[in-house]
Amino acid sequence: MRSALAGWDFGALFSRVRELTGLRQQDLGELTGLTQSTLSMLESGARRLRHIDTIMPVLERLEVPTEVLPMLLSRSNARAETRPPQISMPVKPLVEYEWESPLAIAERLNATTSSNVDDTTLSLLEHEVDDIVGSYEAAGPHRSAPRANRLRGFVQERLDGRQLPQQRRALFRLAAQASGLLGYMAVNAGREALAEAYCTETYELAREIGDQELMMWALGTRSLGAYYTGRFEQAARWAEAGISVNPRDPQAIRLLVNGAARALGKQGNAQGARRAIGKALELTGRVTVPSGLTSCIAFAPYSMARTLANAATAHVSLGDTGEVLAYAEQISPLVEESDSAWTQTLVSLDVATALLSDPQPDVEQAMAVGRRALDVRNGPPIRSVVQRAGELETQVSRWRNHPAVRDYREVLSVWRAEPLAREVAASARMTRLTESGGAEGAGRDRSPRISPRPPA
Asked: What is the pTM of this model?
């Protein structure tokens, strides 16, 4: 009790009194004038008595002998004091705090702000992306893929280290772009599973940094991949998913005309295809788009020329010969002036196909355009070119004895024998089987292997 009084620990005092006497808190409350709840908080340590005017009446009612009270708690001193006395308590020896050294602070700061990449390196990597895009149509997917893969690996090595926040964001974007390039190349090379995996990686990396344009680009490339494997319903859904990220973003132009319009055209949905083309042209008029003819693999929004080229392809599926020829004529100067050999080839094949769809088909002219499209100088073959060249051959089969048709098929046979054409040709043949109701089922839709998370 003396120890409790010396330390002003009245909770311990009351607890000891009740222990010795067998009193309940209610009984002790009647003796001291304190409530049971107050006693309970005092004994648990949740509350302490600190005012002498409150303490002395309690000690008197408990009949605590004055001789056991510390001098500072005597009746005379208690009346004179207006605040609790300072009780002398044993003091623990001071333990000296071990301060950090200035060197330790400097080392920590250096580690926190250090980076394994600098702005010059980031600029060079961005230039590499632009260079791959610029040279893609001349090099083709098989020569460009190793270069893009090396870029992706180098960026990943940097990401495994330490960077400042803005540098890390830039690396995430570069990694997403490198994976996106590989995804697009995989589509052109007929590597469906790889294309889906790369596009999913692109989408997720872009999503981590909130890059909506790159997210939309990735979904557009997934739509392209589904289109060239005959999954037109899935292609339209991927396009719609991309548009929903931001319908007002210039990237939506590609999703509308290359994704939705072409897929809907293949399904025979003329109204839906024309509506998508109209929205793409309307958006083109409201936003800033590049001039000329953009590269097919570029991350930039579609130019007007590329939009019209894709609109022509959609109209081919609908049998709108007049629309196809009008679009082809409108973009012809830009296509001829550009370095985009593939676009020249694809537009020519679209025109040839449209000429055969006319009520009065011009077989001679169609085959002449088709033969020019297969000029070996038009760059290495890609899946879209192989597929459309094969579709044109299928369409002219009813005129197979026509001399112009025989000439086209002979040129096509030589063109397909090119080393780089053989691999994608096999894939294109499987696609034609799918579309025509072959062993895999006409246009059978398959769910994507990997679905992106909903846009943030």
From this structure: 0.68
